[in-house]
C-alpha cells in the first residue's frame, strides 16, 4: 500500500512523502462486502438471504440478553442448524477476541468482524489471555454458547478454535524474520472430521479420498472461501498437505484464492505458502498465475517510522542553514532515490532533479543515508533482495 508521511516545514515548506509499494488496495467487489457486488465470488457472505437470517438471529440474541431470557445452548443449536458457525466474540479497542468467552482461535492476523457474533465491547485488559472476567449475563451466555458450539459434532472448526483450557500457549513467532511461520492458521493437533464438514476440513487433514468425493458432489466449492476467508487450497497449504494441494490444483483450485480475492491477500494460497516460506509449493503454483500476479508478491523496502521522524528533525535544522539559498527557487518537488541492500542499509542516494544548492543536496542525502532505516525488500518467494526506494521531497519558495 502506498504510504505517505508529511515532514514538518516552516518558511521553506519542506515536505517529505514516502512511497513504498507494500500491498495493494482490494477492489470494491471485495469478499467482505455484502450484497450483489460480490455475488460472483461464490461466497456465502454474498448470499443476501443468509445474511438477513443471520442479522435476524443476532437481533434476537441481543433482545434476549437485554431481557434476560437468552438460552445459550438453544441459540447455539439454532445457529448450527442454519450453518452459522460463528462463535461469540468481543470487540476491543485493538481488535476482536473470543477469549473472554473461553475460546482461542488461531488465525493469522486475527479474527474478522464477519467471523464472530459480537455481543459486547470489552476493554483490552479484560480480553487479555488468561484474564478471569465476571460470569455476568453476557459473559456467561458467551461462554456457554461457545462451549456448546465446540462440543457439537457439526462444528467444523475444532482444529482452528479451541477451548482455552485445551488450547495451550500460543506458539511464538520466529525471531528470525527470514524463517517462515510453520503454522499460520489453526492447531497442529487435528481432531476427527466428518464428510459433512466439507472440503476445507478434508484439506486440513490431507484426506485426498474425501477431497475427490466432495469435489464430485460440488465442484464449485473448490474455490469457495469459508468463515475465515480461506479456500480449501489455502487450508491444504497452511497445514502443509502436498497431496491434498495437488488434488485441489488438479481440480482447478486457484492459487490466488476466491474469485474476489487477489494473490496478495493474506488468505490466498500463494500468500500462505509465502508466509510459510514453502518454496516448493510456491514454485508449483507459480505457472498457474500471471506474471503480474506473481510479481505483486514482491515487497519494496519500507522505512522505519521512528527513523523517519528523526530524519524530519534533522531536516528542520538543515533547511534553516540553507534557508537563504533555497528561497531563490520556486517551490518544487524532488525525488530522493535510494538503493537499499538485503540488510536494509542504504548503499546509494541521489536527488533528482537537483536543487539550486549542490551542498544542500549532498547533505540531505548524507542525512538520509545515516538516519533512515529500512525493512529490506523481499522477492515473490519472500527472500531478501536489494531494491530501490524513494522519498519525495518538496521545498523552495519565498515563504
From TrEMBL:
PROSITE patterns from the UniProt entry: PROKAR_LIPOPROTEIN
UniProt keyword terms in alphabetical order: Signal
Signal sequence, start to end: 1-21
Keyword Cytoplasm: no
InterPro entries, A to Z: Ankyrin_rpt-contain_sf (IPR036770)
Protein name (record): Ankyrin repeat domain-containing protein
